[in-house]
From TrEMBL:
Keywords: Amino-acid biosynthesis, ATP-binding, Diaminopimelate biosynthesis, Kinase, Lysine biosynthesis, Nucleotide-binding, Repeat, Transferase. Belongs to the aspartokinase family. This is aspartate kinase. It is an enzyme of class 2 (transferase). Its EC number is 2.7.2.4. SUPFAM superfamilies: ACT-like, Carbamate kinase-like. Catalyzes the phosphorylation of the beta-carboxyl group of aspartic acid with ATP to yield 4-phospho-L-aspartate, which is involved in the branched biosynthetic pathway leading to the biosynthesis of amino acids threonine, isoleucine and methionine. The lineage of its organism: Bacteria, Bacillati, Cyanobacteriota, Cyanophyceae, Coleofasciculales.
């Protein structure tokens, strides 16, 4: 007998017939002798409908009342499902978040779960009842009973948090597709089902736009080692397993807000190559990194940012040992790029920085917490360290700094984030990274999950592709280039709870009134666009930077795969796929296991399709989406 948590999404409970089908599945699970908790979303598009209603009354409704409103959707489905179970002769009881005691932070509309009282659920389970819990909602305190919601898509997070708190054997997420696919089947019908994916990869995919799982649900599964399966509520197919490394014992208090940063990592031995003023047209990145891949040179970070006029900067880092060869490739290519720009005043130029180090903070707890990156920048600024490049992913922030600052950066970051374990020197050989990952996975295999985990060699370089059409780009012109600027800028946004992604500083310097300045571009979600622009505009004269430009017409397309570490040709293949479709890349940002490109919004779906097919991810069968 197992303790199982099942979660059913909106489409899965979208009609009376669907609720009855869910009741059948749930009661069959209980009849097999399992203890069962079922978490449900609101029926169909109910939540969207409620949002629309509110907007008809107020353009800016207060968040408390929005939570009061949106939480009603789930209350309908728990009651109906509980009735349907009883009709089948299966004892059941429905409970709201408040009745369970799902205690969250007092942050309306995006609360994080602090802890879950399990006594009442356990009591009802012991009475032989299926317990049906409303997803997406909690309360900020057991005295005030203020209703909070977890953020759109948050029922997945309710389910995994309940599973972790109850010590369940597994958490099953039932949805309208057969499992986790190589990309969104609504956009690319020949997307392929994965049998499994690591939680690291899924975290990236989910936060880069694959809405099949709420990223915070993956984070909890990863932190608590909770076996998580995503599958269709229409069939009996096995779906996709999200594999997590074996977890350390962990408190169930402060469930979602415990340690944000778990490790400080560094690589003291990098070099940076930047190509300035390359033409802003399709094919440039493909050409540069194509040559680099031909030489089998392994590139670490890649960034590209936008600029006034019609040129870009592309910068990348390599291990110092291969700098000479990487530099030679860049030098060889620059003249060809120069002739494309056509004007002498805009010549491409290679700039090399021989002695740089990469320093990173990592931890799943930083997801959606904008203050963490700002805290890192502030810590580095307090030690007088200037940041040359920034690269962010949901679970890691990396900064490229002068190599001579590496030791003091490690010290200040370990102190700031209270890291007592030794900082990790990034293995020079990427093979070692793979071996480490592989060890983690195989430990898990032997303990609880009896599934085949791919060996290091088999880890696919690209596991999935995601498209995010809900981002906008902001660019700040002429930001004074001195320590502390990134800290101040992103600190301001963090205070407004605005999460920032793809932060890219321009490589070229513009001197204004004798002071060097750079442009900084980054992306935020559409919902935060106006607030971010306003916040930055208000501080412009005090902090001494120029205008803030907002571009709403962007799409972010990303590839994710743990096996891309140490595989030279992966980035090139992505860039070449875009070039072949004549799609211009506006921004590039990479982390160890992902590469993201910003392109024009109109070209987002074609970009996704081109990349998906370039990596051979298409399957032979068309995936059915129930809607
Ligand atoms: P639910 O209501 O069950 O929570 P969601 O709409 O939140 O369902 O998530 C399921 C949807 O996620 C699918 O219908 C699909 O369109 C979309 N999706 C995006 N990326 C992926 C992916 N990589 N794999 C599967 N589905 C995806
Ligand atoms: N009903 C909520 C939403 O639509 C939560 C969820 O479905 O996960 O966002
Ligand atoms: Mg969902």
């Amino acid at each position: 007998m197992s303790l199982v948590v099942q979660k059913y999404g909106g489409t899965s409970v979208g009609s009376v017939e669907r609720i009855q089908a869910v009741a059948q599945r749930a009661s069959a699970t209980a009849q097999k002798g399992n203890s069962l908790v079922v978490v449900v979303s609101a029926m169909g598009k109910t939540t969207d409908g409620l949002v629309k209603l509110a907007r008809e009354i107020s353009t800016n409704p207060c968040r408390r009342e929005m939570d009061m409103l949106l939480s009603t959707g789930e209350q309908v489905s728990i009651a109906l499902l509980s009735m349907a179970l009883k009709e089948l002769g299966q004892p059941a009881i429905s409970l709201t978040g408040a009745q369970v005691g799902i205690v969250t932070e007092a942050q309306h509309s995006h609360a994080r779960i602090l802890h879950i009282q399990t006594e009442r659920i356990v009591r009802h389970l012991n009475e032989g009842k299926v317990v049906v819990v409303a997803g997406f909602q909690g309360i900020s305190s057991t005295e005030e009973l203020e209703i909070t919601t977890l953020g759109r898509g948050g029922s997945d997070t309710s389910a995994v948090a309940l599973a972790a708190s109850l010590g369940a054997d597994r958490c099953e997420i039932y949805t309208d597709v057969p499992g986790i696919l190589t990309t969104d089947p609504r956009l690319v019908p020949d997307a392929q089902l994965m049998e499994e994916i690591t939680s690291d990869e899924m975290l990236e995919l989910a936060s880069l736009g694959a809405k099949v799982l709420h990223p915070r649900a993956v984070e909890i599964a990863r932190n608590y080692g909770m076996p998580l399966v995503v599958l269709s509520s229409w069939t009996d197919e096995p779906g996709t397993l999200v594999v997590s490394p074996m977890s350390q014992p962990r408190s169930l208090r402060d469930l979602e807000i415990a340690r944000s940063v778990t490790t400080v990592e560094f690589d003291p031995d990098q070099a940076k190559v930047a190509l300035l003023r390359v033409p802003d047209c399709p094919g440039v990145a493909a050409r540069l990194f194509g040559e680099i891949a031909l030489q089998e040179l392994d590139v670490d970070l890649i960034i590209q940012s936008i600029h006034e006029g019609n040129t870009n900067d592309i910068a990348f880092t390599v291990n110092s040992a291969i700098l000479k060869r990487a530099e030679a490739v860049a030098e060889a290519i620059a003249p060809a790029l120069r002739s494309q720009t056509g004007t002498d005043s805009q010549e491409a130029e290679v700039m090399v920085d021989r002695n740089v180090a990469k320093i990173s903070i990592a931890g799943a707890g930083m997801i959606g917490r904008p203050g963490i990156a700002a805290k890192m920048f502030t810590a580095l600024a307090s030690a007088g360290i200037n940041i040359g490049m920034i690269s962010t992913s949901e679970v890691k922030v990396s900064c490229v700094i002068d190599a001579q600052d590496c030791d003091s950066a490690i010290a200040i970051l370990c102190q700031t984030f209270e890291i007592s374990s030794s900082p990790i020197q990034i293995p020079v050989s990427s093979a070692e990274v793979l071996v480490l990952k592989d060890k983690e996975s195989s430990r898990k295999t032997s303990t609880s999950l009896n599934v085949g985990i791919p060996t290091a060699k088999e880890l696919p370089s690209v596991r999935g592709v995601a498209l995010d059409l809900n981002q906008v780009r902001l660019a700040i012109r002429n930001v004074p280039d001195h320590p502390g600027m990134a800290a101040q800028l992103f600190g301001l946004l963090a205070k407004e709870n605005i999460s920032v992604d793809m932060i890219i500083q321009s490589q070229r310097c513009r001197v204004i009134d004798g002071n060097p300045t750079r442009d900084i571009a980054f992306t935020v979600s559409q919902a935060d666009a106006q607030a971010a622009q306003m916040t930055l505009q208000q501080a412009a004269s005090i902090l001494g930077y120029g205008t803030i430009l907002l571009d709403q017409e962007i799409a972010k397309v990303s590839i994710v795969g743990a096996g891309m570490v140490g595989q030279p040709g992966v980035a090139t293949r992505m860039f070449a796929a875009l070039a072949a479709e004549q799609i211009n890349i506006q921004m590039i940002a990479t982390s160890e296991i992902k590469i993201s490109c910003v392109v024009n919004k109109e070209q987002g779906v074609s970009a996704l399709k081109a990349i998906h097919s370039a990596f051979g991810l298409a399957g032979s069968q068309k995936i059915e989406v129930r809607a």
